[in-house]
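User: Please fill in residues for this 81-position structure.
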């Protein structure tokens, strides 16, 4: 097995942590879910999704016209079908 320098170890840790965020965007800050051991197995709900769901509940008579996946990945799935 190849020996790793401390610099390489720190770089990997930084890289992994920067994308491991409940809101799914890069950050340097530690997540609340990372601070407590019992919270490390919890799947977070991104706030964007939660806000969209809340808005949909208010407008029960309207059909769903938005998707957080489309906004997140900037894709239009309706064109490909």
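Assistant: Residues filled in for all 81 positions:
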């Amino acid at each position: 097995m190849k020996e790793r320098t401390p610099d390489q170890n720190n770089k990997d840790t930084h890289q992994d942590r920067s994308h491991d965020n409940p809101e799914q965007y890069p950050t340097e800050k530690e997540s609340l879910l990372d601070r407590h051991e019992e919270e490390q197995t919890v799947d977070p709900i991104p706030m964007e999704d939660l806000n969209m769901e809340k808005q949909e509940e208010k407008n029960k008579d309207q059909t769903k016209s938005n998707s957080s996946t489309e906004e997140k990945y900037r894709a239009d799935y309706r064109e490909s079908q």
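For context: Residues 7-15 have pLDDT under 50 and may be disordered.
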